[in-house]
Amino acid sequence: MNVPSLPASPSEPVSTEGVIAAGAYVDGRRVANIAISEASSWRAKPGHVVWIGLHEPDMALLSAVQKQFDLHELAIEDANHAHQRPKIEQYGEALFIVARTAQLIEGRIAFGETHIFVGEGYLVSVRHGASTSYTPVRERCESCPRALARGEDYILYAILDFIVDNYSPVLEAIHEEVEAMEAQVLASAMTRAQIERLYLLRRDLLRLRNAVGPLVEVCRKLEHDNLPMVRSTMRPLFRDVTDHVRTVQEHIDSLREVLAFAFEASLLVGQAQETAVSKKLASWLAIIAVPTAIAGIYGMNFKHMPELEWEYGYFAVIGTILLVCLALFWRFRRVGWL
Fold this sequence. Notes:
Beta Polymerase, domain 2, disordered N terminus
C-alpha cells in the first residue's frame, strides 16, 4: 500500500546533491527550475508537469521525493538498492519502471540501472552506475515543445528510447572487434590472450542480452495493457521501442554466434596446423629411416657379408639410399605432406 505522507515544507532543508535537473513544464515549455521541496505544489497546478532527474541519490533525497509524490515504499526501496532486473510495476495510478543501461569502458561492458517513477503530473528518473546522462533527452524534448506537451508518457518514451539507442554504440564497438578477430582467425590459430578476450566478449554479450531481453516485456505492457498514464496515442511509439529492442537482441545473438564460429574455426585451424606439422615430421622420419636402416644393416659386425668384398658396393649402397630417399620425397610432396 502507499505510504501516506504530507508534502515537504519549503523550509525543510533538502540536499541538492544527486539532483541533475528539476523543472516544471506547461505545454511543453519549461516555466521554472524548481527545488525538490516545491515539486508537489508545482505538480498540483493545472496543466503542469514536473520532470526530475536524479543520479545516485542517497536515501534522504529519495525520501524527500517520495513525500512530494506519495511514492510507494517498495519502489523507493528498489530505487535505493539498484540491483533490479528490468520490470514494470503498477502502484495505484503510478508506474515504476526499471531499465538496464550499458556502456563500454576499457573494452568491457559496464552496466547501470535507471528507475523511473511516472504518475499524474510528474516523472522522476533515477540513474545508478554506468549510464549516459539524460541531459540530451531533456534538451531534445525541450527543443520540440509540441511533442513534450503530450505529457509524462512522452517523457517516459523518450528516456526508454534513449536507453535502447545507447546499446548501439556498445554493439558497434564490439562488432568491429569481432570482425577483426574473424579475419585473423583464418590466418592463424588464436593465441591464449585472444581466446580469453573472445570468452570475455561472449560473456559480456550474454549479460547484455539478459539486461535487454526483459525490456521487450516492459514495452509490450506499455503498448497493450491499458496502463494508467499511458494514452492510446502513445502506443505506436512504445511499439517502436519494442522493435528497437528486438533489433538489439538479434544483433547480440548474431555477434555471439560469430564469436562461437570464430572459436570453432580457431580450433579447426589449430588442428589443421598440428596435422600439417605431424605429416611433415612423419614424412621426414620416413625418409631418414632409409639411410638409417641401411647403415644399421651394414654396420653389423659380421665377417662374411657378400657385399663387403664387392668393389662397387659402397657406391651401390649410396646410390640406393639416394634413389629411395628421392622417391619418398617426391611421393610425399605430391600428396601434400611436404
